[in-house]
Amino acid sequence: MTSILGISAFYHDSAAAVIIDGDIIAAAQEERFSRKKHDPKYPFNAIKYVLKESKLNLNQIDHIVFFEKPFLKFERLLETYMAFAPKGFKSFSLSMPIWLREKLFQKKFLFDKLKMHDEKFDDISKIKFSEHHFSHAASAFYPSPFEEAIILTLDGVGEWATTTLAVGKKNNLEMIKEIHFPHSLGLLYSAFTYYCGFKVNSGEYKLMGLAPYGKPKFKDLIMQKLLELKDDGSFKLDMKYFNYATGLTMTNNNFTKLFGQPVRDPKKDLLTQFHMDIAASIQEATEEIILKITRNISLNYKIKNLCLAGGVALNCVANGKIQKEKIFENIWIQPAAGDAGGSLGAALAYWYHELGKPRVIFKDQMKGSFLGPKFENDFIEKQLKSIKANYKKCNRDEIISLAAKELANEKIIGWFQGRMEFGPRALGGRSILADPRSEKMQKELNLKIKFRESFRPFAPSVLREDVNEWFELDTDSPYMLLVSKVKKDKQIRMKEEDEKLFGIDKLNIKRSSIPAITHVDYSARIQTVHKETNSRYYDLIKEFKKNTNCPVLVNTSFNVRGEPIVCSIEDAFNCFMGTNLDILVLDDFILYKHQQDKSLIKDYKNKFELD
Question: For position 455, what pLDDT does the model report?
Fold first, then answer.
């Protein structure tokens, strides 16, 4: 038996994963335990969890693999500062002490941290290092159902690479091409995230959600001034508009002058039609670049399967365009596509590529991405008693029947069951669920439950066998990473006066028979639900369909704005009591808000920072 611990840390979204003989045993982000969103620190709690799940002490682990190479990253940092000198000295002087104290000597730093888990751990030679983009590529290819695939990774930056192309065959993974820092599609998108007043490495999905409210008026300006795009999809950014290479901000005054407005201050400035048009413009530009890359690699490599990873692979609108154009026959996207997934990729890369182990291919090696903690009924009941909750214990069928009826009556349910998801999406393990047929639900969920901007769209969970009846999609999308349109016969066409509306005014127009998940452009970010990976959630949607003739539920992550997805029973109860959730389901236990002691109500709205 060979066990491998993978670790990603120290930039954002720290995480840990354990594999045994190639089988993925457990994986989780540190933020879920620390309750600090995108926590970049050493993932002590995540490592503790994955070791517990694997039933191994740290000294019994055979190999420990960190997801990137610190010396290469340091080289990039030094070369960048030298290239831009004397600009950026402030940023340089701020970053150097931590590099010299911790990051440069990461093997020893990791060794000291790992000893906290197990004092018997004494073999520093077990610690190995992968490369950032190789870890991403491995996380996408090795769990995929393909024997052969092209692997495209797109993110901000690893050591030097920002975009890489690899070919995977059986257990072999070969890097073919790279685009290097500072030329980065991820950082270009993050620059516009920053410009619109959202947090970098956190608010990019808000920019994507805002885009359909605008028109791509600035797309030509972006394509002509900010970058040079070649026929094969490779690109170069004009760095005179950006400050991220050596500065403390993403953009500079040239960028501001080009677009004509200052960087939005989220504390003072409202989102306007200008920001919606900016969002639409960078989204369309990003899609054009990604489509050009994917068309070119499909043409040149004649491989029918595509795997995607890296933070840009979470741009599910762009993914949907690749799918719709049928550039590849099959697409598989790593659900933890960002840096968290690098922990899993590092472990898998070592098992297959370094140790040369044969690869067994099956449909869902990620196990639906349900790789986090779960709790037994006895433990849940003990926790509920200790927090003085009022609850009712039911059997599985009763829970499903009750929850389906309450959802049909427009009740909003916190749904906590089975193992927690790995990656940024709630997939029916730690979800907030609602009726998609309700006209008021989208606004209510945003403002009263999530405490977030009203423009934010919600995703549908749909039974896999029914997806093509309701959406322009007929493929698996288990990880909520493909966007497609609601079927024409389910749409409600806008009136002439509605078409003239701008921005957020469009939000109140009912545009389909499932308005709570239909975005302003008739699109939806779809999750197909499969009995094999989440039978309880599948059965709930099936029961809801039996009651309503609708095989779709609204599914959003179980948290509020700025909070990581809930992990523990206590997290779930606190969120339940701090929001307008009506019902909480914890595996075989159901809790009704009106039956709880009012003294347990939490002031939750201001507990977490804006994300």
Answer: 77
- How buried is residue 323: exposed, middle or buried, by Cβ count under 10 Å (0-12/13-18/19+)? buried
Can you tell me the distance from the alpha carbon of 211 to that of 284, in angstroms, rounded to the nearest whole number?
9
Q: What is the pLDDT of residues 447-483, one digit of tens each?
A: 888 888 777 889 999 999 999 999 999 999 999 999 9
- Residue 80: the pLDDT is 60
Under a CB-based contact definition with an 8 Å cutoff, are residues 280 and 220 in contact?
no
DSSP 370: B
DSSP-assigned letter for residue 4: E
Give the tokens for residue 176: 């073919």
Q: How far is CA 127 from CA 55, 62, 349, in A?
A: 20, 9, 14
Question: In this structure, what DSSP letter does residue 564 have?
Answer: P
CA Rg value for the chain: 24
Distance, CA of 477 to CA of 461 (rounded, Å)? 10
Q: What is the pTM of this model?
A: 0.93
Contact (Cβ atoms closer than 8 angstroms) between residue 195 and residue 250: yes
Contact in structure between 597 and 573 (CB atoms under 8 Å): no
**DSSP secondary structure string for all residues of 510-527:** --BSSGGG--TTSEEEEE
Containing H/E element for 117?
none
440 contacts 549 by C-beta, under 8 angstroms: no
Beta bridge partners of 127: 64
Residue 475, Cα to own-chain centre: how many angstroms?
Answer: 20
Q: Return d(Cα 180, Cα 167) in angstroms, integer.
A: 19
At residue 36, the pLDDT reads 96
Identify which of 441, 492, 423, 469 has the alpha carbon closest to the alpha carbon of residue 27.
423
d(CA 255, CA 242): 7
Count of beta carbons in the 10 Å neighbourhood of residue 358: 8
Q: How many CB atoms lie within 10 A of CB 254?
A: 14
Which residues are 154's β-sheet partners? 163
Q: How many CA atoms lie within 13 A of 81 on its CB side?
A: 15
What is the rounded CA–CA span in Å between residue 372 and residue 420?
A: 4
